[in-house]
Amino acid sequence: MKAQIVELEKAYWHAMEAHDFETIKKLTRFPCIVAGKNGVQSVSEAAFKKMFDSGAGAKIKVMNIDGIETQTIADNTAVIAYLIEIGTTENEQGHPMKCACTSTWVKENNNWVCALHTEVELVSESVL
User: Fold this and answer.
1) Which of 8, 34, 15 is nearest to 107 (CA)?
2) pLDDT for 5 beyond 90
């Protein structure tokens, strides 16, 4: 199951890069919980779409995913944690953002969906 969860997480990020909301919607369990530098919130599909659309001009590029850890909790639940390096067109200095991320994936109606995602920007340059 580890390989499947890693591929789902990568597919999610590829959809973010391509600004492909339909794929994101298929891979997300709504309402989803998101935690990051702006706090913790439960996000409905409509609110997620609004947030997604508000970032339409910001192109991201996943530069590296490393340090992946996964754990199967049950036949229908898995967690993943990893380090990610993301470049953006908005970053004037040209330095990619480095984050530690976690996601919880659940299998509903024979499809895996992300129910929780956390993201915290790292301050240490030597992590990746």
Assistant:
1) 8
2) yes
Instruction: Label each residue of 47-91 as H, E or C.
Output: HHHHHHHHCCCCCEEEEEEEEEEEEEEECCEEEEEEEEEEEECCC
Torsion sign over Cα 58, 61, 65, 71:
positive
Say how far residue 112 (Cα) sits from the centre of its chain. Answer: 14
CATH class of 2-120: alpha beta
Domain boundaries, the chain: 2-120
**Cα distance between residue 66 and residue 102, in whole Å:** 12
The tens digit of pLDDT for each residue in 101-124 reads 999 999 999 999 999 999 999 986
CA 89 to mean position of chain CA atoms: 18
Q: Cα(16)–Cα(91) distance, rounded to whole angstroms?
A: 17
